Amino acid sequence: MIILETRSLKYTYPDGTAAVQDLNIEIKKGKKVAFVGQNGSGKSTLFLLLNGTLKPAEGEVLFHGVPIKYDSKSLREIRKSIGIVFQNSDDQIFAPTVYQDVAFGPANLGYSKERVDACVQQALEQVGLSRLKDKPPHHLSGGQKKRVAIAGIMAMEPEVIILDEPLSNLDPVGADEIMDLLNELNHFGSTIIISTHDVDLAYRWSDYVYLMSNSKLIGQGTPVEVFREQELLKKASLRQPTTLEIYHEIERRGLAYGKNSPKTIPELVNTLKPLDLMWVDVPPRVREGDNLNIGVMYGEYATQSPYEAINATVLHIHPDGRAIVELKRKGIKAGGVLLYDTDSYSLPEVNQILKDGEIVFIGAMGKKSKTLAEHDGIRLDVTSGVIDKSILMALCGKRCLILTAGGMVDHALKRIREYVEKSGIEFTVGVVNREEGCKWLEEADDSPETLKI
Ligand SMILES: Nc1ncnc2c1ncn2[C@@H]1O[C@H](COP(=O)(O)OP(=O)(O)OP(=O)(O)O)[C@@H](O)[C@H]1O
User: Fold this and answer.
1) Which atom of ligand 1 is closest in space to residue 197's alpha carbon?
2) The model's pTM
3) Distance 37 CA to ligand 1 centre (A)
4) Ligand 1 pocket: which residues have CB below 6 Å?
5) What is the ipTM of this complex?
6) Ligand 1 centroid vs 45 CA: distance in angstroms?
7) Nearest residue CA, atom 28 of ligand 1?
């Protein structure tokens, strides 16, 4: 379903600058969309047109198929449904305290005092600023101001959230946290639109990409479609995403396995061609054609964990008892990722899982889970890029625990499952504290004989 649409949209600033020309876009509900283009290509102007802040010179903007009207009542309705976080937070923040600033939107919508309070508390908690609620916003750092601006929009619970360069001014961990938050909002149904110069972010994060150059749209499609067009990227003064660049180098050297366009580091790792053939010692009862799971020894792990084995087929057995086996990536039984839903959190339970589950790597996603871990002295190995790092750890045979809550549990589960499906590399995935309690999903199936080499 199309939620936001423009038809032949055109805008010219009073000084004659044609900032947006003949722009036609269709944004589907519930999608994550990125507008990418060099400085001055018209992204911010377009965003201001999308929620009625600017009125087009020609063409129209449609929300749910209905053209936007520009009388003050209609505009108030539109701005409630389409929230914008500006590039420069100082353009957005003006109240004497952080709390009042975030409360401004919901109070203006006529919400009761209790509802305003609940919206503000929740938004501040999600962006990790509850403890600064009484501070004057102009005493905050650039990144903190950005979070206040985001909280102010989130508190109004808009259907569409537009963020102009959402990560400018944020440190890398803060940036990952904001992207986690946007993923969570998207998981619960919000359509998220961002502008960015960061091709790596647009490639990895978005469902759909629009490329802008000189006030016009010059390309659109899925990230894979858009970012493989070198000429188009050059025209927009952009470069290829790093993951794709590395992949093409691997491919050029004949080291790539299968044809794909990896988006994340685990996917990139998975494209490396495996060793195909190997000599191993086999016990007398093994026959040619048998399938074996061969335990792989890497360092300390090999002596401790029973989990990793590469599926192999015995091709030939030499009279001295050694055999040539063909290794297959499918069926690697690596480590596992356990997701702990901190909505029903108990420290003794977490400690028990850490002990019984042989967990060697712990991550947390979302402010709430990080704060809980910090408060209870749970050692966190990773707090940003948690899903990808856990997948990489699981691939090395480690068992990981991710503390997270709400929609991020499902988001993480989906990402990990997608990886398992796409790569054919199995590892166990589990969720604790959902209705079924603690459960390792997709637990190891009947494994053939396991050998150590
Ligand atoms: N208030 C204004 N008056 C006149 N021209 C403007 C105004 N604001 C922006 N422009 C011009 O409109 C064009 C599009 O600017 P816009 O800010 O929309 O681009 P952008 O893609 O968001 O750029 P950036 O990536 O640098 O934020 C530019 O040529 C810019 O100089």
Assistant:
1) 25
2) 0.76
3) 12
4) 13, 15, 17, 19, 37, 39-45, 87
5) 0.97
6) 6
7) 40
Average pLDDT per consecutive 10 residues, the chain (453 residues; last block may be shorter): 96 95 96 95 96 94 96 91 90 89 90 92 88 91 88 92 90 84 87 95 96 95 93 90 91 78 87 74 88 62 49 85 75 73 90 85 90 92 89 83 89 86 76 64 39 30
Dihedral, 307, 311, 313, 317 alpha carbons, nearest 10: -30
Question: Residue 38 CA: which ligand 1 atom is closest?
Answer: 25
**Of 15, 44, 46, 165, best ligand 1 pocket probe by most atoms within 8 Å of the beta carbon:** 44
3-state secondary structure 270-339: HCECCCCEEEEECCCCCCCCCEEEEECCCHHHHHHCCCCEEEEEEEEECCCCEEEEEEECCCCEEEEEEE
Domains of the chain (ranges plus CATH)?
2-239 (3.40.50.300), 241-265 (no CATH), 277-331 (no CATH), 336-445 (3.40.50)
Specify the pairing of strand 208-213 against strand 216-221. Answer: antiparallel
From the CA of 39, how far away is ligand 1's center (Å)?
8
**Centre of ligand 1 from the C-alpha of residue 104, in Å:** 27
- At 399, the amino acid letter reads R
